[in-house]
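Entry 14. Ran structure prediction on the chain below.
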Amino acid sequence: MQIERVGTLCTDLGECPVWDARQQRLWMLDCRRGHVILVDPGSGEHRVIELPAPLGSMALNGPDSVVVALQHEIALLFPATGALRTVAALDERHPHLRLNDGAAMPDGSFVVGTMHPVRGDSEPPLGGLYRLDPAGRLAQLDRDLAIVNGPVAHPSGKEVYVCDSAARAIYRYRIDSAGRWRARERFVDTQPWDSGPDGCCFDSEGGLWTALVRVGALARFDASGTLTHRIPLPVAHPASLCFGGEDLADLYVTTIRDSGRLRANGELDGALLRLRGTGWRGAPRPECRIAVPAMAGP
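Output, structure tokens:
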């Protein structure tokens, strides 16, 4: 297996890599700087679109737009023009509450969670887990999640896995035939590996991958929640990951240099990494189908 740096990109808080099969490019974020970044993995060149910081996450929304979680709003970004259209917003507001990780679901919706890390000892977290449906309606799915990361749909489309990094847990939500989400079940406790889980993705064999953000490693769990592989990385804080490349055989990893809470100053901290020769291929990920909101009248 080879681990290499892609280009010269250096992010403060590299997050949410998304492979764009149409362009054979990688989208990612620098959440702390408010940067949406499109990377050409072949040349290492990249383009930056600046949005209001902080950002939480993004997902592809067809060929012309991407869904972006801003601090409290979810918007559509049109990269060709840089236009940004707000679709929905959180009802709850708090200085320490913001949108965080999110992902496209097989039904075209966007599932996104919040983070509320600064709280009193007995204060429950605000926010939780939300679903933006294709018509642009935002509904809360769950509460009592402090730092939501890694929402990812199982390749079967019948389950969704969500991390609470503060609880050091990965949860599973089963989805019934009517599309209803059942109560969450604990799938994996990552405390034995001394880290909360961060971003997630699936391989084609149903293995769930996550970034062990505090110990500089990736972990793969099988369908029973058993750790099958742990891959150390030459960085302190990997944040998220996705499979990419023409045959989804490359594994891309975003990293942290200064998130505000986690800091590192090694040569590769903040870089975009590519792992080749892992032996796995990724499971194709869905795209959103969020409708463009109508323009307000005069």
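Residues 2-276 form a domain with the Neuraminidase fold (CATH 2.120.10.30). Will compare against last week's run tomorrow.
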